[in-house]
Each structure stands twice: as C-alpha cells, then as structure tokens.
C-alpha cells in the first residue's frame, strides 16, 4: 500500500472511550468518556501529567492493554472501521502496518536477544510477505532514513550496542518500515536528553512530511507540543479538559489546567532559577473530587461552582472545546501572541521565543 | 563464542581432577573387601583372598594406586572388571549408548510436555489451564519415577500391549523397535523433569511477558506466535537452560532405577551391579564417565546461554 | 464449579480406569489348563524353530566355568558345556560325558568316557581332552573356589587310551564325583583352552554360544552335532538377566520371555494373570547358622530350646507366602539324604518347652544371642520375625544388619549366629560338613559334636552308593537331633511360563538343565 490517500473523514476517531482497570483496590475508571479525532496528515498532541490517562488512551487504540484486568468501552474507529472488539488476528493486520506505535523507554523497548536488523525485517516480512533479502534491504532503507549511520553494517548489531537516542531512532525506523498511515508516539523523547530530543523531533517532522502520515503524539511537555503539533488535546484525571489548535490554545488557553501547564514551560534561559510546577498532584481514580476534577489545585476555583457538579465538555467553536465553567470570566494567560489580561496569576513577563527551534505559529 | 567455549573447557579441567580424587578415595574408605569378593566370597580361604589381593594390585600403597589410576585415565585404560575381566572402558562404551538414548529420550519428552504447558500457563495466568498445569507439575515432581514407570508398564505394556515391558533393541538392529523400547522408559524418566521445567518456564515467561519489548512486539502486529514463540521464548528460555543442566544430573541418577524396571542394559544397571559386587574398577569408571557427562552438559548450557544472550559473548 | 470439583471428577475417572486396567486378565487360568510343565508332547506338536527366552535373576559376568560359582550361575553354562557326570532333577549322579565311574581304590578314580562325542568345533572328545581340562583347572591362578578347591585335591591324571581317564587323589574324596558333575567337570574343547573363556565358549553341550553380554544376556543356538540329538528340541535359547522380580514377571506377561523364575510373593498375581506356575522343592533352606563355640550355643539343650521357640509353619506362611516346607534338617523331605526319623514335627512350636529346656541348662533368666543378617529385604524380614517369635521363650536376639560383603563377621567368629539362606550343594555330605563339620567353611570355630564328626569322617571314606547314602541320612538325623544348626524351612523354586513349555522338570539341586525341553507349536 503506497502513500496514504486523503481520507473523506478523520483517520482516527476516538468516541466516548472509557477504560476501567482492575487494581488492588478494585476497579478504577482511568479514562472517562474521551473523544477526539486525528485527521489525515495531522499531528495531534495528547497532553497531560502522568496519571492523566493519556498513555492508556493511546494504548487502547491498538489493543495493547492487558485483557484480563481491563475493560474498554466506547469506540475507536480507524478509516471508519471499528478497532475495539476486533479479534487479535484481525488487529494484528492493523498493528505495525496501518498504525504503528513507538514507546517511551528506548532502553527496554527493543528485544535484547535479537539484532535490530532482524527486529525490523520481521515486521516487513510479516506485513509485506517479501523475501528475507528484500526485508533486509528495506531495513537498511528505513535506518538510513532515520539517520542511523552505516545502516547496512549495523543491521547485525544488538540493541545494547546503541545509545538511547539511537535506539529511539531504531524504534522509529521499525515503526515506519511499513509506511503506516498513523504513528502513535508515546512520550518518545521523555527519556532522552534535550539535545537528542530536538534531533529526534526534527527527524519526526521531516518523516511526517515525507510520508504524509498522521501522528498522535503523547507528552506532558508543552514545549515539545509547540514544536510539532497542529492540534492539542489536554487530559486531566481521565477527562478531556480542553482541545483546540495549538497556536490558539497556547495564546489563549480556555482551562486553568492548560494555563498552569503553559506556565511550567521553561522560557529562554532558566539556569539558576527554579522551574515552576503545578502544586499538588493528580488525584487517583478512586479518590476523584466532586465537581471539577482540577478544582483542588486550581488557583481560580470558586466554591459552590467548581466543587458541585462535574462540568461538561463544551464545544466553543471551530474545533475548540473546554470543560471549565468559569472560562469566560477568567481571562487565562497563554504564551506567545497576546499575553492575556487580568488573570489572577501574578504576571511574570511571558513572551519571547519558546524554544531554540524558533516560534511556531 | 569460541572464546566462551575455550574458557569453559579450561575451567572443567580442575573439576574433573577433583572428581577423580573424590571417586578414588571414597571407594577406599567404603567398607567391604573387593579382594575377598573376587576370591569367591563366602567360600574363599584366606590364602585365596591374599592371592586375589595381590593379583588385583590391591596390596600396593595408596598413592601408587592412585597414580596408576590417573595414568590409566590418560591412556584410556580404566582397568578391568574384577569379575568379568572385561576392560572397563569397553563395558562403559557398550552400555553408554543405551543410557544416553534414554536420557535424550527423557529430555525430549520433558520438553514436549513442558514447553506447551509452561507457555499456556504463562499466557493465561490464574486460568484453568494454569491451575491444571501447576497441579500436575506438583504431582509430577512428587511422584517417584519408578512409580510412574510401573504404572506405564501396567497400562501400556501389559494391558494395551502397545509398548514392550522390558528390553532394549539397539538402533542398528531395528530403528523402529529401538524407538518403541525407549518410549515408556523415557516418559517415566522425563515426567519429573517436565514438571520442573514447566514451572520454571512459566515463571520465567510471566516475567518476560511483562517487559516493554513484548509490548513493542505486540504493537508490531507479528501475531501471538511471533510474540510468545519468538520474542518471549528467546528471553524466557535462559532460566530453563539452567534447569536443563541440573536435570541432566538428576536424569543420570534416575537411569539407575528406570533401567532396572525396564531391564535396559545401560550404565545405570551396570552401576547397580558393580556396587553390589564391589567391582571397584567399574564403579570408578562409571563415576568418572558420569562426571564427564555432567560437565559436558553444563558446558553446553553455558554455550547455549551465550547464544541466547548476546551480551554474554563479549564478556 | 470450584477448582476441586473441576479436578477431582476427571482424576477419579483416570484412577478408576487405571484400576480396571490392573484387574485385567482375572479369573480363568488359561495357561494352567495346558497341563504341568513337565508333561512331554508328541514330536509333531513341537515347534522346532522356537527359541526359548528365560528370565534369570542371576547375572553372569563371565561364562568361564572356572570363574563362576556352582549352583545358580551354571544355568547358562549347562547349555553349552556338558559335564563328565550329570545330575538328575532329584539330585542323583547320572552318566553324561562319562558312562561309567569306579574307584579302583579310595584315592584312584577311573572314568570310562562316552565314545563318538565331538566338541562344537569338531575336535574329538577323548581322555587327552579331559586331562587337558583338568590341568587347566589346577593351574589357573584366578580360578574360583568351585573349581580350585576340588582341583587342589587331585594329585595326578592319566589318559589310558582314548576312552579312560584315571584320576589320582591326594587323599580319599568321594565327593569328587559331585565336583565332576559341576564346574570342574565341564569339558572345554582343547583348542579353546589357551584363549580367554570369559565371553567365548566351545563345549560339547546341546547349544552353541552365539553371543554373551556380561550381566545382560546370553544367546545360544541349537547344535546339530550333539551326541544325544533327541535332547535338543529348541532352535535357540536366550537367557536374559533380569534381577528385579517385578520386571521379570512383566517381561513374561508382555511376551518378551517364555519362562521365568518368580518369587513366592508373586505366585497369586501370576496365577491371576493367567500364567502357569510350577513349583519344586529345593535343597535351599532358610537357616539359623550357629557358632557352636560361643556361649550357650555349646549346650545342646539351648540349641533345642531355640528350635522349639520358632514357629516354622507361620514363617512359611509369611516369609514364604505359603510356599515352603518346615524342616529341622538341612534338606526337604523329598530329598534322598533326608532322614525320615526326624520330621519337623519333632520340634513343634512350644515356647513353654523352650523355656523349660533353657532353665534346665542354667538359663532360667533367659538367653541373649547376637545375630548377623544380610541387608536384603527377605533376610531382614526373617530376622525380625525370628526376633519377635523367640521373645516369649525368654530369648533375646540382637540383630546386626550388614552388607553382604561383611558376612565374614560370622565366619570370623564375631557373632553367635547368622540368620540367612543356605543355597544347597550337589553333595549332601558337603552340606553337612560345611555347616557342622570340622573345618566347614560356614562352621566358625569348627564347633561340632564328637558323634557327628565320627559320622562325617566315615562318610569321607565311603564310596558313593547306598551305604554312603544311608550314612548321610544318619548324619542328617543326628544333625536334627542335636540341632547343630537350626534350619527353619526349605524353599521352593517357582517357575512361571505362558503354558507353552513342555518337558521341563525343575531341579532340586543347583541350576536346571533343559534336556528335552521344547516349546509347543501354535502356542501363546
């Protein structure tokens, strides 16, 4: 199957996805009625702190959650076809072929007992049915593509012979080997240091351009989001709290959580100063507060309003939505573009460039 | 890989030397007088016994005898059986194929049972299959191999008459009957090993299936066979190898009983007879051969480890 | 369903199936209906191409007559080596390679050889061959006692023509006839005498050796040149060494052997499985061997007390599973040397009488004896049973269990008695002498009584024949009266076969021969 054709509708549609996981203390709902879509050639960033349910959401697309303790409800449609409830034989045809996934821990995500050549080639052989030699050639091709030097010799190398950044590139090569239409990247740069991170991200952008594929990028780092995402979807405590185009969301966030996340992005040179982080922690699924899930940590929380009923996700036009009932009263401050107005946040001069790579507008 | 092999071979030498030491001196301190037995046991006169002692060289000083013994090992002269006069090396060479066939058969049976059992138990932990596997494996380890052997004979040889109850047919004589004569003994000997291996494999698999690279493999869409059979197995198999190495030793000991029950003319029955006869040269020869088998098995395990885990090769 | 329910039901089915399988073959005794094993069959009914496979508990290491004991190990030897003198199933001397024997004087034996006999390699059997054989036995350095002891008593041999051999003894030894009926008399072809006879055998016997695997098996095939062609009724003979009793019977039941020796404990199972069982009395007996030079055992009353204190019938039931004969002599009642004057009923089980006798001998407070037992299951069973039995009579037995190799503790005089099995001898006088005569190898300290020794001396100088037999019976009677050892019960040899064997008569003494033994056609 060659380059993806522009689809009539969204490539990936997640509709009211809920995931219950059975743990020591009983069943917990870690993803609660999440809905969003990824269009063709689009990069969507799924953002939130750890514990927000973003990884679980991404893994449920390819059915990678442990079956015995997980119950998934709702719908995940790829090119109009329902993926949830597919038999594993059917799902295997999608995995690695139409939809590929790369993971956060490059050190442990590759099998130490096989050469990287073998690990890439087997995927090609599996989905394309070509000869061993053809598969090997393809492996060299994709390794070259992701910038692994001396690809042909390196085929026979084992994962432990590569550095973390290189391994992540190998993972990407593996994911791209069958030209997927959608790449799900679960925090692929989190475990890498900043300079490598930048390189990997730029590679990813280049490859995306070249293959015309969509990317669902999961991260907690808004700096990365600014680099590569067209649209952003923010999750908190299993809920979606805000969606919208990146530029708009960054300029004028419509939810205090998004505002807080933006605030914790380091601006310019931060050596010597303390990085700001959101006080408190995400509550566990068993201990969700009444009303808005974020209100205990929210600087704008209003008693009687925010702690009573759970606010619904409201669409606010043009692909934007928010779950904050007070959003119109609050003028939340973003970064880049207009620094917003009278928010209760003490003003620290915000503005200037976001990342060494330059602004993305 | 070659360096690994060479290193292991070198390490085996001191082990074998110690074995010859222990074998030789243990027999020295065991009660019973081989000279008397060689002279005819109960009815022998004192003169006969003294003559036998001289003939067998048992009246020489200890260290001289030990030295002769070591010399003999190098020239391949392990002495002669006190009773049959047959050279020890030839007696062992005659019987070794039987025992080795039996042990190989037992290992094959063990793997045929343990691999699927361990995998099924690990891929559905807590389910019925898992519980059944664990139950049977506990039973398999607990039941003595001779009991299993006798039950097998009862059902399959005496009642169903599918397999012979006793006897060994050499491969050269008839491959089909050779195989038939080894089925029941191999199962009897291999069941306990199967149980052990299944348990280890299950534990090892459970561990491996939790790893990140398994998640990656699943995400690649290569199917259950690829994920479990290839990716998981190669990593999970290493602890099983250790168990296999240990089992070789246990299987070797088990041949003693199994060969008696099934009347197989192997090293096990040779040993039993030699011990009761106090046929020292045979006992020594068998002990050293057994040690050799175990050492070789362990070297093979180490080499296999190197294959499974590439990081070890560089070391 | 709970886990238990899930598992128990199927398991129960498996166990039930296995038990049902075990019950297979019960009821009728089809093999037994074939008639006794000693019955003969018309020549037309025999399968002349059959091979008889025998499961033997004994393992021969070598097939050299000089290196084997006499008795059980000779089963294989008898097939290939004929002897100068033969033994009948009831223990009498009969002609074999020698047709006539007589003592020209007490130290000179003249043998007349059968003419026209050849060895299996074609060499003629003659006096010269006999002399060469006896020479080998005398000169061989590592010859076993079965051959070296009697060979040592020969002073000289002479061949007189081709058919007569004259053997001169150092002193009178009439029992040499029995020796020539066993290993010493096994005739080996002169051409093979200089080579190794551990795995090769060339004799003048019924069957030729094809292959010998020490401790495992021996394969023979019929030899058409045998001097008594009518005795060879099988095409082949295989002896398989199977020490384990259960394995032997399994082999029989699954058709891998034609015939086997089984233990007393297996008789009921064998019959239940439809196998034919044949029993015969033997000269082997469970015995309390005494060291008469120690303590109370010097006293005849004490020994007799011991004999009254044991319940022989009960031991036959338990240790022998009902197969055996209580005896107070070293022989069963059907044996020639048995004295009818001393049946076992002369020493009934009577603890009170035992106590009385002990008191009379000065042991009113009871007597204590140390007893050696070999570390084997049946021996231990005997020892423990005897220990229990004699307690009410005030007798205490201190049991010492040792490995067979340490049996010499008894012969070295370290313990009072040895509780074990007497294997039997071809010459009954040998039995009596070894156990209770001066210099007897299992008579430590040469403890004996003057009357008994007188008899033994007389027997030594009496040629074989009725007179000697009578003397032996008298000696056996005296033995019983004085309880020089305390026999418990005489054992049986028990054979199991699938009903196809004909013409086989088990031997009372030593290992059986297979003259005239065949296998029925279309059988089993």
How would you describe what is shown here?
The complex is a heterotrimer of chains A (361), B (315) and C (524). In chain A, 27% of the residues lie in helices and 20% in strands. Chain A is α/β, with parallel strands linked by helices. In chain A, a hairpin with a 2-residue loop joins strand 4 (70-78) and strand 5 (81-82). In chain B, helix 5 runs antiparallel to helix 10 and helix 6 packs across helix 8 (175-209). Chain B has helices at 2-29, 34-38, 46-55, 62-75, 88-123, 128-142, 145-159, 175-209, 212-219, 223-261, 267-277, 280-308, 310-314. With 315 residues, chain B is an all-alpha fold. The longest helix of chain B is centred in the C-terminal third of the chain and has 39 residues, at 223-261. Chain C is α+β, with helices and mostly antiparallel strands and 524 residues long. In chain C, strands 1, 8, 9, 10, 11, 12, 13, 14, 15, 16 and 17 form an eleven-stranded mixed sheet that branches. In chain C, strands 4-5-7-6 form a four-stranded antiparallel sheet, covered by helices on one side. In chain C, strands 2-3 form a two-stranded antiparallel ribbon. In chain C, a hairpin with a 3-residue loop joins strand 6 (154-160) and strand 7. Chain C is globular and about 70 Å long. At the A-B interface, helix 2 and helix 3 of A face helix 9 and helix 10 of B.
């Amino acid at each position: 199957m060659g380059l993806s054709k522009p689809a009539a509708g969204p490539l990936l549609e997640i509709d009211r996805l809920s995931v219950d996981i059975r743990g020591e203390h009983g069943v917990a709902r870690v993803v609660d009625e999440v809905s969003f879509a990824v269009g063709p050639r689009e990069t969507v960033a799924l953002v939130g702190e750890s514990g927000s349910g973003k990884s679980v959401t991404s893994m449920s697309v390819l059915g990678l959650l442990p079956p015995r303790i997980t119950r998934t409800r709702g719908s995940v449609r790829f090119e109009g076809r329902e993926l949830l409830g597919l038999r594993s034989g059917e799902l295997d045809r999608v995995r690695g072929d139409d939809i590929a996934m790369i993971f956060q821990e490059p050190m442990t995500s590759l099998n130490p007992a096989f050469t990287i050549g073998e690990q890439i080639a087997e995927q090609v052989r599996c989905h394309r049915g070509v000869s061993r030699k053809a598969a090997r050639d393809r492996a060299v091709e994709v390794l070259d593509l992701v910038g692994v030097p001396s690809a042909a010799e390196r085929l026979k190398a084992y994962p432990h012979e590569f550095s973390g950044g290189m391994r992540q590139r190998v993972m990407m090569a593996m994911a791209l080997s069958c030209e997927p239409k959608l790449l799900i990247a679960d925090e692929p740069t989190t475990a890498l240091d900043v300079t490598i991170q930048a390189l990997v991200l730029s590679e990813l952008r280049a490859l995306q351009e070249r293959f015309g594929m969509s990317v669902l990028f999961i991260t907690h780092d808004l700096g990365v989001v600014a680099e590569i995402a067209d649209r952003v979807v923010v999750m908190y405590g299993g809920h979606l709290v805000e969606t919208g185009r990146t530029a708009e969301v960054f300029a004028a966030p419509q939810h205090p959580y998004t505002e807080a996340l933006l605030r914790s992005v380091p601006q310019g040179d931060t050596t010597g100063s303390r990085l700001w982080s959101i006080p408190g922690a995400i509550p566990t699924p068993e201990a969700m507060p009444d009303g808005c899930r974020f209100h205990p940590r929210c600087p704008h929380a209003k008693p009687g309003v925010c702690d009573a009923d759970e606010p619904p996700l409201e669409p606010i036009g043009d692909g934007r939505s928010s779950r904050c009932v007070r959003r119109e009263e609050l003028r939340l401050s973003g970064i880049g573009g207009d620094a917003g107005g009278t928010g209760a946040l003490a003003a620290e001069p915000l503005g200037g460039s976001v990342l060494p790579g330059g602004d993305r507008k | 890989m070659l360096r690994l092999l060479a290193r292991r071979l070198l390490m085996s030498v001191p082990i074998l030397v110690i074995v010859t030491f222990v074998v030789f001196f243990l027999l020295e301190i065991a009660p019973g007088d081989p000279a008397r037995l060689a002279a005819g046991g109960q009815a022998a006169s004192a003169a006969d016994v003294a003559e036998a002692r001289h003939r067998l060289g048992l009246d020489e000083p200890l260290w001289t005898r030990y030295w002769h013994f070591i010399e003999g090992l190098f020239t391949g002269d392990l002495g002669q059986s006190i009773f049959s006069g047959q050279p020890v090396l030839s007696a062992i060479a005659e019987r070794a194929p039987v025992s080795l066939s039996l042990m190989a058969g037992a290992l094959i049976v063990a793997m045929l049972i343990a691999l699927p059992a361990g995998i099924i138990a690990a891929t559905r932990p807590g389910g019925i299959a898992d519980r059944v596997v664990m139950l049977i494996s506990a039973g398999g380890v607990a039941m003595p191999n001779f009991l299993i052997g006798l039950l097998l004979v009862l059902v399959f040889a005496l009642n169903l008459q599918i397999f012979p109850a006793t006897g060994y047919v050499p491969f050269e004589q008839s491959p089909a009957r050779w195989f038939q004569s080894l089925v029941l003994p191999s199962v009897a000997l291999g069941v306990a090993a199967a149980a052990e291996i299944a348990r280890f494999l299950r534990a090892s698999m459970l561990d491996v299936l939790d790893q990140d690279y398994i998640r990656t493999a699943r995400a690649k869409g290569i199917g259950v066979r690829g994920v479990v059979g290839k990716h998981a197995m190669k990593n999970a198999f290493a602890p099983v190898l250790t168990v296999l190495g240990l089992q070789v030793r246990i299987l070797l000991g088990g041949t003693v009983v199994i060969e008696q029950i099934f009347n197989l003319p192997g090293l096990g029955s040779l040993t039993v007879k030699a011990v009761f006869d106090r046929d020292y040269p045979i006992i020594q020869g068998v002990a050293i051969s057994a040690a050799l088998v175990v050492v070789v098995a362990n070297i093979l395990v180490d080499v296999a480890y190197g294959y499974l885990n590439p990081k070890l090769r560089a070391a | 369903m709970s886990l238990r329910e899930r598992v128990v039901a199927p398991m129960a089915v498996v166990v039930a199936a296995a038990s049902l399988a075990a019950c297979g073959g019960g009821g009728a005794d089809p093999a037994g209906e074939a008639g006794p094993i000693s019955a003969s069959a018309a020549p037309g009914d025999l399968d002349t191409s059959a091979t008889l496979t025998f499961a033997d508990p004994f393992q021969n290491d070598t097939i050299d007559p000089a290196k084997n004991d006499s008795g059980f190990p000779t089963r294989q030897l008898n097939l290939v080596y004929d002897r100068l003198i033969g033994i009948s199933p009831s223990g009498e001397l009969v002609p074999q390679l020698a047709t006539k024997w007589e003592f020209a004087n007490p130290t000179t034996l003249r043998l007349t050889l059968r003419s026209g006999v050849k060895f299996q390699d074609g060499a003629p059997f003659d006096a010269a061959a006999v002399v060469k054989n006896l020479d080998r036995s005398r000169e061989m350095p590592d010859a076993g006692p079965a051959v070296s002891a009697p060979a040592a008593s020969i002073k000289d041999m002479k061949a007189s023509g081709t058919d007569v051999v004259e053997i001169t003894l150092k002193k009178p030894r009439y029992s040499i006839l029995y020796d020539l009926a066993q290993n010493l008399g096994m005739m080996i072809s002169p051409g093979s005498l200089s080579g190794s006879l551990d795995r090769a055998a060339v004799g003048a016997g019924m069957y030729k050796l094809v292959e010998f695997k020490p401790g495992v098996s021996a394969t023979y095939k019929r030899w058409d040149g045998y001097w008594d062609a009518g005795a060879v009724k099988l095409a082949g003979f295989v002896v398989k060494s199977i020490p384990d009793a259960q394995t032997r019977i399994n082999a029989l039941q699954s058709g891998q052997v034609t015939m086997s020796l089984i233990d007393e404990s297996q008789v009921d199972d064998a019959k239940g499985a439809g196998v034919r069982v044949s029993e015969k009395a033997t000269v082997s007996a469970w015995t309390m061997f005494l060291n008469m030079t120690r303590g109370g055992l010097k006293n005849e009353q004490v020994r007799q007390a011991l004999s009254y204190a044991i319940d022989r019938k009960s031991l036959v039931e338990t240790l022998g599973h009902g197969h055996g004969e209580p005896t107070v002599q070293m022989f069963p009642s059907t044996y020639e040397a048995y004295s009818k004057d001393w049946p076992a009923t002369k020493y009934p089980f009577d603890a009170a009488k035992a106590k009385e006798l002990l008191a009379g001998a000065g042991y009113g407070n009871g007597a204590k004896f140390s007893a050696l037992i070999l570390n084997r299951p049946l021996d231990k069973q005997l020892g423990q049973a005897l220990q229990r039995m004699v307690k009410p009579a005030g007798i205490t037995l201190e049991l010492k269990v040792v490995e067979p190799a340490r049996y010499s503790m008894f012969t070295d005089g370290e313990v009072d008695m040895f509780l074990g099995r007497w294997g039997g001898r071809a010459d009954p006088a040998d039995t009596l002498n070894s156990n209770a005569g001066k210099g007897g190898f299992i008579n430590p300290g040469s403890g004996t009584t003057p009357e008994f020794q007188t008899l033994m001396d007389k027997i030594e100088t009496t040629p074989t024949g009725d007179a000697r037999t009578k003397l032996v019976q008298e000696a056996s009677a005296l033995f019983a009266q004085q309880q020089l050892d305390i026999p418990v019960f005489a054992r049986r040899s028990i054979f199991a076969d699938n009903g196809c064997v004909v013409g086989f008569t088990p031997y009372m003494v030593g290992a059986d021969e297979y003259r005239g033994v065949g296998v029925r056609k279309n059988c089993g």
